[in-house]
Amino acid sequence: VLVNRERGVRPAGWEVGTVEIRSLLTRLGDPQRTFRAVHVAGSKGKGSVAARVALGLRAAGLRVGLYMSPHVHTLNERVSVDGAPFDDAQLAAALHRALDARDAIEGDAPANPGAAASYFDVLTASAFGAFAEARVEWAVVECGMGGLRDSTNVLSAPVCVLTNVYLEHSAQLGSSRSAIAAEKAGIVSPGASFVMGMAEGEDEAAIEAMCVARARGAVRVCALGAADAMPEGSEAGRATDAPNPQTHRSPCPHSTTQSNTPNPQNTVARANRALAELALREVAMHDPRVDAAFKNETMMAKMLDVDEADLRRLLPSRLEMLHLDVPADAYNSTAGGGGGANAGSSSSSSSSRSSSRSRRTQVDQCTSGK
Fold first, then answer.
1. Is CB count within 10 Å lower at the N or C end of the chain?
2. What is the pTM of this model?
3. Average pLDDT rounded to a whole number, residues 238-250
């Protein structure tokens, strides 16, 4: 049975961590070591930032994987290469490889932690295995929840991003924003650049995140300027080389266009865009092709001005505005019905599940989240 942490399922005495997925990945040959990564954590906006970074890297000519969660319609949304989500056959093959590895561990060494790999562990291992097979050069990986103990935290990512910190998932992550910030900044590995979507010194959570990043060995700590994090202004980012705290400007001229319309959506979109640019500029310090793209105005524009259609393709429903003519008695008539969009989504996704009866239950668990 695959335990699904995404739905709050947690057996008594079960500690959340990465030991299970590390064991599973070892059995798969450690595919996460075949590519470099941009690791994205945060309370809000991490999907949008991750998608923008992936599209930007693709525009620079790199082969790029993108792993996000959760999905809205189908599981395929979670895994894509070069802007194209995996089709059913590709995804099924990746899942089967991970599940075969889990079964082999359970058969050979049932006490091995990999035998208890969860739903999200299997999905994450499947994605990393698929990226290795596709020979991606960079993968942009969105955390599932938190950071330090998340299944995705098996990467030694050169660039780590924290979008923002809200008081959420307190039972799992901590009872204060500072505690949650520390958990999310736990994705930083030695030698990484840490990019933060909060202004430097903005509050205790921002300070805590920067301190944790430095303590974990970040060589650069970069924060958006207050102008990008807030509705007013046009100043870009700041970067601090760690451990020597000399601060210098890190301009993001393409991400600071002012809007005369005080629309909260415009503010959020601008902040996400600025943060994605700052992350791409840090990637440029690790990859000469991205650095060269930033030095070419045409290429830089392609990296930063991503096509909205491509963005919507990677973020279905997250960027849609629906106008519904809902009858006045709709809530009464549907109450307790147990159907709706979720039921339809489950029905449509079931048609693409594996026909193998011996594996069908496990693959169904991955696609339905049971």
1. N
2. 0.78
3. 47
